[in-house]
Amino acid sequence: MVADESTCYLDGNSLGRLPRASLRAVADVMEHEWGRDLIAGWDGWIDEAQHVGDLIGRAALGAAAGQVLAIDTTSANFYQLCAAALRARPGRSTVVSDAANFPTDRYILEGICRDRGLRLVLVDDFDGEGDVSLDRLASVLNDDVALVTLSVVQYRSGALHDVAGMTAAIQRHAALALWDASHAVGVVPLEFDRWGVDLAVGCTYKYGNSGPGAPAWLYVAAHHLDALQVPIQGWFAQADQFGMGPSFERAPGIRGFQVATPPIVGLRCVREGFRMIERAGIGAIAAKAARATAMMVSLHDAWLAPLGCTLVTPRDPARRGGHLTFHHPQAEQLSRAMRAANVIGDYRAPNQVRVACSPLATSYVEVWDGFARIRDLLSSGGHLRAAPPSSRVT
Ligand SMILES: *Cc1c(COP(=O)(O)O)cnc(C)c1O
């Protein structure tokens, strides 16, 4: 990993660090594949979204080959799979999600439901910050529900849902479950096949360390592959792609979910990121996340709670991912002061700070030093003397 010694980078849940191997991988594909082979490169590249998808599935999702594609963005994949799920449940008119779910998911659902005249039910637990309990979910399930979609790990609170238990509850009503694993993939062990997950999406640039805007992924359980149809019928989903025939005939398997040309350069970064996860082992990665978040909880309680901070994330390590969220009444000023002190976390309006350990890239020392600097800023009042807001996106 490329790192600056004085920086405590506690934002790997938002954008992972750059692996050195990715620098070489990108240089190689430019020089030795695109640069040299030109169009002939497609002989090797044509199935790359499937190959990298299989790697993600094996390394991080508990998914057997042939169910994952590494392609497009999480948002686009989410739209595609929501629409495919709704098409498979005609006559049902309710979609369920969560008021604390990631904005892109909520906005896309709002549009889908408006366009199709469906009812969107947003479960609202704990003032929109916590997780959705199984009981709360059960109270909104019935046989009119076509689709339920939730995040595996809540982006704000860091709470981890019971994916297996909730999926089973959803399936008891013959609804489809679509999980957004963006804040979980690469840090929480996922067992999609064993848990009976129907559908899932997620990104690669958080704990996957695959780079800003790197291709995302989608997962479709084997038994749904031939029954579901995404709305965009692109030429990469055509059975005889280069026959270029007059009408669409869907390719079997996961290829039937691919719209278009895979982004080869970005996929090489995804490949390096998930090769690292596979080598380290998701079990060892998750064990470090559990230890590091436990350390963050202890440091929060010892140093930050007496200075006005309150923990938002669950205290039970089995109920969280790799990031921790705390409240402070001056969270915005504190976040700016943290940047100036080289402690990179992020701010979520109106009063939360998020900090993470991305196990492959973040050291325990970084976590310790970062928390010590936050403590010093709060105890000295330094967070109130930070520079005024810049235009930079946080
Ligand atoms: C980060 C994140 C996304 C990102 O979506 P993009 O399409 O990559 O912009 C989506 N959903 C969740 C839950 C996320 O955490």
CATH level 3 topology of the largest domain: Aspartate Aminotransferase, domain 2
Low-confidence stretches: none
Task: Report, as a whole number of angstroms, the end-to-end distance.
Answer: 22 Å
Q: How much is the average pLDDT?
A: 95
The percent range for helix content is: 25-40%
Question: From the helix content, strand content and strand pairing, which structural class follows?
Answer: alpha/beta
Beta strands, count: 13
| SSE pattern | EHHHEHEHEHEHEHEEHHEEHEEEH
Instruction: Tell me the fraction of residues in β-strands, as a range.
Output: 5-15%
Order of strands in the sheet with the most strands?
2-8-7-6-5-3-4
Search tags:
394 residues, alpha/beta, Aspartate Aminotransferase, domain 1, Aspartate Aminotransferase, domain 2, 2 domains, seven-stranded mixed sheet, four-stranded antiparallel sheet, 13 strands, globular, binds pyridoxal-5'-phosphate
Tell me the layout of helices and strands:
Elements: E1 8-9, H1 20-37, H2 42-45, H3 48-61, E2 68-70, H4 74-87, E3 94-98, H5 103-116, E4 119-123, H6 134-138, E5 145-151, H7 163-171, E6 176-180, H8 192-195, E7 199-202, E8 217-220, H9 264-280, H10 282-304, E9 310-311, E10 323-327, H11 331-340, E11 343-344, E12 346-348, E13 352-356, H12 364-380
Parallel strand pairs: 1-11, 3-4, 3-5, 5-6, 6-7
Antiparallel strand pairs: 2-8, 7-8, 9-10, 10-13, 12-13
